[in-house]
Design brief:
The chain is an alpha/beta fold and 301 residues long. The chain is built from eleven helices and seven strands. 40% of the residues lie in helices and 14% in strands.
Length: 301
């Protein structure tokens, strides 16, 4: 019969082996993810060396990621280098948990604006962790499921300016329909997602449905060609897309001049689906963001 002491030793040995294996697995997974990020970054760097991206007016070559999903942060910065800013006011809807969107980085640069989000959990987290900018009204947030019927009231209740510098739209479905309904603001620059599955000259958009929820399939958003044609009616030109084929960038006609790559068509600026470029990077935390925002608020005074 095995003694109790020996049983304990055997149990401890098995537990130690499992712990070592778990640590080894975690270490291997971390290294695999690290190598994947290196490969993605190398791929993007090589891609940007292509002749297509050597024209200084093309926007996708300026892409950089700070807290945007892809490289929208760098492209937005480059656009405003070219057209300048006025009041540094933004409106963004579909901002998720607040840790990854197109306007978080702008808060660090002294911008102010409004976030609209339909998730109660996300809004509660933002209210809990963005106090430094919420208290000063540099950032305002409203919880709402956005429709054509409420979008103007949602914006005008928080934003008094008619002309703002940036509008960012990301709600995975009714994006273009909601944009066309907006009348209370006149944004100088618009960032909006497109469905890169549908390349030019395909004209596609989901039908408007006030209760639309993305099912995770191809039926989402709007094609780039549809955006080009539709936005032209409201006085905007397509000036570029991010290299992953996710977001399109529009600038108001009166600001374009010769600052961007012409022609302003989907055929010229389309970037194909490159979802493999959506590399996971070490993400921010609410605690870190709060400290960074507090510092930036002080530095921007």
């Amino acid at each position: 019969m095995i003694s109790m002491l020996k049983k304990i030793r055997m149990l401890r040995k098995r537990i130690s082996t499992k712990i070592r294996n778990a640590k080894h697995t975690k270490f291997m997974n971390r290294n695999i993810e690290y190598m994947r990020r290196i490969s993605v970054n190398m791929y993007k760097d090589n891609l940007k060396r292509d002749e297509r991206y050597q024209n200084p007016k093309i926007l996708s070559k300026y892409g950089k990621k700070l807290y945007s999903q892809n490289e929208e942060d760098g492209i937005i910065l480059e656009i405003f280098k070219r057209v300048g800013t006025t009041n540094k006011v933004f409106v963004e809807f579909g901002i998720g948990d607040g840790l990854e969107n197109n306007t978080l980085a702008l808060l660090f640069q002294g911008w102010r604006g409004l976030w609209l989000e339909g998730s109660s959990k996300s809004v509660n987290n933002i209210n809990d962790h963005f106090k430094s900018v919420l208290d000063t009204k540099q950032l305002q947030i409203t919880e709402a499921f956005i429709t054509k019927d409420n979008i103007n009231d949602l914006i005008s209740s928080k934003i008094s300016e008619t002309e703002i510098d940036l509008l960012s739209v990301d709600i995975d479905g009714n994006d273009v329909h909601i944009f066309n309904e907006i009348s209370v603001i006149n944004p100088r620059v618009v960032v909006i997602e497109y469905n890169a599955k549908f390349f030019p000259p395909i004209m596609f958009t989901v039908d408007y449905n006030p209760t639309h929820m993305w099912a995770g399939d191809d039926y989402m958003g709007v094609s780039l060609k549809y955006l080009e044609v539709d936005f032209a009616k409201k006085g905007y030109k397509l000036v570029g897309c991010d290299i992953a084929g996710v977001n399109a960038f529009f600038v108001r006609d009166d600001l374009v001049g010769d600052k961007f790559l012409a022609p302003y068509t989907a055929e010229e600026h389309y970037e194909p689906v490159r979802y493999h470029l959506l590399a996971t990077t070490p993400g921010p935390t609410y605690q870190a963001i709060d400290k960074i925002l507090t510092s930036c608020v002080k530095n921007n005074i």
